[in-house]
Amino acid sequence: MRSLLCAAGAAGILLFAAAGPATADGGAGDEGFTIGDRRITESSGLAASRAHPGVYWTHNDSDDGPYVYAVDGRTGRTVATITLRGIGDPRDVEAVSVGPDGNVYVGDIGDNLGGSWDHVWIYRFPEPERLRDQTVTAAQFTVKYGDGPRDAEAMMVHPKTGRVYIASKKKSGGAALYEGPERLAARGANTFRRVAGIDQWVTDGAFSPDGTRLLLRGYFGAEMYRWEGGRPKDIGSVGVPLQMQGESVTFTPDGRTLLFGSEGKGSQVQPVGLSGDQLPESAAKESGGKGGDGGAGKGDAADGSQDAGKNRNVLLAAATFGVATVVVLALRRVFRRR
Asked: What is the pTM assigned to this prediction?
């Protein structure tokens, strides 16, 4: 029976892949790419490089070691493997972000035991001037939550203030956004305190390059927030591409496009263009208006296209389930005849 279910799952994946998401036009990496490195099988975080345009940082989930990979957004090829020294054994690495201080932050913040570890870690290292395989010394910061242990997969560094934020994962357990101290301390524990509830199952997040938008994604959806006074204000959902296990997201450097990543070998990083209120303020100004695309605002054509994308995902999921069911039933008949 397990083999039948695997066959059904494969049929579903093929249908999803054939359908594909809507793409966005743009520069290097904006069209999306496929991660070609066979070592990267569980890409769980994604961040646009500040020092190297068109390059994106990623990493595996647990059981990989202290490695971070620089991937060329034009080709999907790994152009540098960074080995971190001066830290302990990574436990469950889930997120990566680049700060305004020129450092790459790596969030070892997952909790495979459902939120029972009393502390997690953040690692920090300078973004290399030259992209090549190298070993760098990283700082290690201990993190605790003001209201007790949490399972989390999203860590974001604000691009203007440099403050670190973490979003806990489980909606059923009261997912929330947590704010770190103004500056992380290498000694003692850094306490992250709850600043806002999040009505979503969060697997990753990212600030826009200008710091005016925060995007939090889950497996099947994403929510955009306007960042005001250090707090998020919900401004609507964003259509997410159908992916095997959606785990990562980042803004492109111009802020106009989101790149959504997934776990799995040869995983695709897929683009979704932004418009209307969801455009960061700097990108909207460059377009000559608040919303860009002719000034479409929230609830106009821009939001309609996002809703259409979500509806398409639901329809595809239903169609996939139907195809998978047919495959299972057909295979059952074949095996019964033997």
From this structure: 0.80
